[in-house]
Amino acid sequence: MEMRSLKWEIGSKKSKILIVDLFSMSIWRVLLAILFPPLAVIGKGCGSVLIVFILTVCGWVPGVIAALIILNNPKR
To answer: Cystine design at 62: which of 20, 23, 46, 55 (Cβ 3.0–4.6 Å)?
Structure first.
C-alpha cells in the first residue's frame, strides 16, 4: 500500500499556495523519533543526525524534540 502526500492548494497554475501537506511525517517516522531519534532523521543528512545524536546523549527529551522538528520541516 502506497501512502501519497495529500496537498490542498489555492490559486492558479502559475501561483499555487500550499495550504496543507498531510502525511509529510509518517506515523512510523514519528514513532521512530520517539524511540530512537537519530535513526528517524537518517535521511535528512549527516548534520541532522549528528545534532540529534548529541542532544539524545545529553538527554532523551531534547533529542526527541529535535528529531520531531527536523522531520516536520518541509523544506529539507
So the answer is: 55
